Structures are given as structure tokens and as C-alpha cells.
Amino acid sequence: MARGKPGSSAATPTTGPTQGAVGQRIVSSAHLVSPHSAEMSEFEFGLIVAGNAFYRWIVHCMSAAGLKDLTALDVLVLHHVTHRARDKRLADIAFIMNVEDTHLINYSLKKLQGLGVVVSSKNGKEVTYGPTEEGKAFVTRYREIREGCLINALKADDALNHDIGELARLLRVLSGIYDQAARSAASL
User: Fold this and answer.
1) What whole-number distance in Å separates Cα of residue 49 and Cα of residue 39?
2) What span, in angstroms and rounded, lies between the C-alpha atoms of 119 and 131?
3) How far is CA 15 from CA 7, 25, 28, 36, 71, in A?
4) Which residue in 40, 46, 62, 155 has the most C-beta neighbors within 10 A?
5) Nearest by Cα to 62 from 49, 80, 83, 76
6) Looking at the DSSP assignment, which residues form a beta bridge with residue 129?
7) In terms of pTM, does the model score above 0.70?
8) Which residues neighbour 103 within 8 Å (Cβ) at sequence distance 6 or greater?
9) Confidence at residue 154, expressed as pLDDT on a 0 to 100 scale
């Protein structure tokens, strides 16, 4: 693989395995591009950009719904405790969201409780969390805003909706590959 001068920008070469449709692949870290899968570097950059755009979107959408000053994780935790109208345990929330550090989920739950949108209940030693009526109202308003601002943009293109479904399947597969790679790296 061709290398730039020390201190030069991290552009990828225009020939070989990293060549894209316009001559260069769009990656965040050219030094990680592998001749065996330059596509993975492109995917990772897309994931970084899409992930940050998604987090920004959910924070702004919830703010527009009237619940301000939340982090993306706070918004996701609120949605998850509202999911299927069943109270959830801290460990279950962390597991489903694939968050290893349960203290991050716990911090969000405490914040959401302080805002009056999540409530905890204790049954023996087990503590579960669910939305309050106010929390449900914010989630309902979020859904309305999501329909108007995001989902309406997809209505005109059934092929795009199909592609999104396929992408969701691929992301689930890749999350398993990343989890296995993380376990492998942790054992080194």
C-alpha cells in the first residue's frame, strides 16, 4: 500500500484494494485499511458518521417533544423502559442495549427518575423500572415528531425501506462479529 509523507493527510491510495468508485475510499483511518477488506474501513467510517447523526437526531427529537437536556443514552433508556409496557431490570436494559458498563444505564435511570419520567419499583430484592404517565406522554410526542420529520421522508421510496431492513439485518450480524473480536482481543 502506498504511504504518504510523514505529517501528510490520511488519504487512501487511488489504486489497489482501497480504490473506490471515485478513486478513493472514504475512511476515517487510512492506516487501518486492510487489503483483505477495505470495505470494513468504509463501513466503520459510515457507522461513525451515521451513529453520531442518529444520536444528534434522537436528542433533538426528544427536545422538540419537550424533554430537554438529555443525552442520547438517556433517550434510548427512556424508550427501552417504555418498550412493550413491561417494567425492566437494570441488567436487562444494559443487556438488550449491549452496554457493558451498567453504571452508565444506572446513571441515566437516576436522571430520568429525577425528571419524573421513569419510576422504580421493588419486588423483594429485584428493582424494576418503567415509564411514568408523563414519560409515556413524552415518548408519544417523540413518536409523532419522528413520523413527521423522519418517517415521512421514507414514504416515497419502498426500495429504500427494503434496503434499510437489509442493513438492519447486516448490522445485527456485524455486531456479533465485533463482539467476538472484542472477546478475542480481551484474551490477548
Assistant:
1) 15
2) 6
3) 21, 10, 18, 14, 42
4) 62
5) 76
6) 88, 120
7) yes
8) none
9) 84
Q: Which three cell numbers stand for residue 17?
A: 484494494
Distance CA 70, CA 62 (A): 8
Among candidates 13, 33, 8, which has minimal Cα distance to 24? 13
Q: Which residues of the chain have pLDDT under 50?
A: 1-22
What is the CB-side half-sphere exposure of residue 164 using CA atoms within 13 A?
A: 9
In angstroms, the CA 121 to CA 86 distance is 12
Q: Which residues pair with 130 in a beta bridge?
A: 119
CA-to-CA separations, 141 to 22, 83, 130, 170, 176, in angstroms, rounded: 42, 15, 17, 30, 33
Among 113, 112, 109, smallest CA distance to 89 is for 109
pLDDT of residue 23: 52
Question: Cβ(10)–Cβ(30) under 8 Å?
Answer: yes
CA separation for the pair 29, 25 (Å, rounded): 11
Contacts of 78 (CB under 8 A, 6+ apart): 62, 67, 70, 112, 117, 118, 131, 135, 138, 139
Beta-bridged to residue 131, according to DSSP, are 118
Closest CA to 80 of 98, 67, 66, 68: 98
Q: Which of 37, 35, 109 is closest to 76 using CA atoms?
A: 109
